[in-house]
Specification:
The chain is mainly beta. Helices cover 0% and strands 49% of the residues. The protein contains no helices and 8 strands. It has a 4-stranded antiparallel β-sheet, with no helix packed on it. A 4-stranded antiparallel β-sheet has the order 2-7-4-5, with no helix packed on it.
């Protein structure tokens, strides 16, 4: 599989969004946009949500690799500041 990438921006802080709806079945790298001024939070609380209380915080330019993601909808993103977000990259398995 070729590397596929994208990005997700949270228009309204505090409104959690799935990274997308695409099948992944591979490792996934998520990196906070370098232009962010606040934290973004990634993860999934098991109920399809993430907040500052239960998400993995990423400052601008920080990244995390999820070892195996089945679908982009499994990873939820929220931000502390309107209009900030993260880029993602499906890594070849």
């Amino acid at each position: 599989m070729a590397a596929i990438s994208g990005r997700k921006v949270v228009a309204t802080a505090g409104t959690a969004l799935a990274l997308g709806s695409q099948a992944v079945d591979a490792p996934l790298l998520v990196k906070a946009l370098t232009t962010n001024t606040g934290l973004v939070y990634v993860g999934n609380d098991g109920a399809g949500d993430v907040t500052s209380a239960n998400g993995y915080p990423l400052a601008a330019g920080d990244q995390v690799i999820f070892e195996l993601v089945n679908n982009l909808s499994d990873i939820i993103l929220d931000s502390a500041v309107n209009g900030e977000g993260a880029a993602w990259l499906i890594l070849d398995a």
